[in-house]
Amino acid sequence: MIPFLDLQRQYAGIADELEEAVLTTLRSCGYILGEPVERFERDFAAYCGTAEAIALSSGTAALHLALLALDIGPGDEVITVPTTFVATVAAILYAGARPVMVDVDPDTLTMDPAAIEAAITPRTKAIMPVHFHGRLADMDGILSVARTHGLRVIEDAAQAHGARRNGTKAGAFGDLGCFSFYPGKNLGAAGEGGAVTTSDPDLAQKIRQLRDWGQTERYVHAMLGYNYRMDAIQGAVLGVKLKRIDAWNAARRNIANAYDSGLSPMLLKAFGPFGEDHACHVYAVFPSDREALRAGLTEDGVSTNIHYPYPVHLQPAYADLGYGPGRFPVAESYARHTLSLPLFPELSPGELSHVITATNRLVDRATHDRPSRKEYA
């Protein structure tokens, strides 16, 4: 069976260095924050092109503290999108603010800047775009709206480590960038992890304080804080992997571009070709009959996934936000059709060829019509 993701292959390629970094950390008996985390913070900030990176316990913690650092809370509104993992919206609710959603652009599946203006109210404090599937959102358009209205911008860059446009990387466009290091991400820890990037020293200092129980010094708690610290082993693991992220992303782009050129024109595919502005975290196709294609690929020995089967506004836990079916047609249509194909740096040429051949054979046999891009408009 060709796996959707194979972390064992990644581990095998870096096992000696990874194990030495972890064992060194274990032998030090310094398990929370400490030198491995500080070193990773310096290196990750330099990599992203920001002055600061603050390592945290998860990507969700990063989103939560980014909002709190900007003093966003009850009575405030934050504009975001329904095409994302639920953590984006949950973090806004954790801060006590109200998520206000806008639809995504049908050609990129990222925030449509043209939709933002109509969503702005006197309570709007920030815009939170999502670099979905690893593709950078239209940051020029989003930042233009934000500057016009005096709004802050928080990038949800959980899927976009290393994506860049015109020399600027994900996490360096807005006031704050939020990353997840969940193991399956392009840059993944050996467990949970996250980070906030910023070039504002005051915001960085506040997030450092918030992640460690609001302490200004040991046992002096100046504000309500949280236990959102990164453990030292995750810092050590991420330090080893960070050196390889550009090579891994290049391999992902090669695979995505092979899909783009090799898959049947009868199949609506992810929106390529893929350059540096796309980290290629996910490669999706959009068949009319997702379940039939998925079942056929399983029979042919190909594992697939769905990112994500339901937009956030149609999830039961978020029904009280008041967005019903039909409110965001692009997001809803995408969610009905999306199917993610195997995409990881160690996918072999033979496996890639098999996925393309099997998918094309199933598409050619299918009786359904090719879905139209208009369906997402």
Q: What brief labels describe this structure?
A:
dTDP-4-amino-4,6-dideoxygalactose transaminase; Aspartate Aminotransferase, domain 2; alpha/beta; 377 residues; seven-stranded mixed β-sheet; Aspartate Aminotransferase, domain 1; globular; single chain; pyridoxal phosphate binding; two-stranded antiparallel ribbon; 12 helices; 40% helix
Descriptive notes:
By secondary structure, the protein is α/β, with parallel strands linked by helices. The protein folds into 2 domains: about 5-240, 3-Layer(aba) Sandwich (Aspartate Aminotransferase, domain 2), CATH 3.40.640; about 245-375, Aspartate Aminotransferase, domain 1 (Alpha-Beta Complex), CATH 3.90.1150.10. About 40% of the residues lie in helices and about 10% in strands. The two termini are about 35 Å apart. The model has no long low-confidence stretch (mean pLDDT about 95). InterPro entries: DegT/StrS_aminotransferase (IPR000653), PyrdxlP-dep_Trfase (IPR015424), PyrdxlP-dep_Trfase_major (IPR015421), PyrdxlP-dep_Trfase_small (IPR015422). Keywords: Pyridoxal phosphate. Belongs to the DegT/DnrJ/EryC1 family. This is dTDP-4-amino-4,6-dideoxygalactose transaminase.
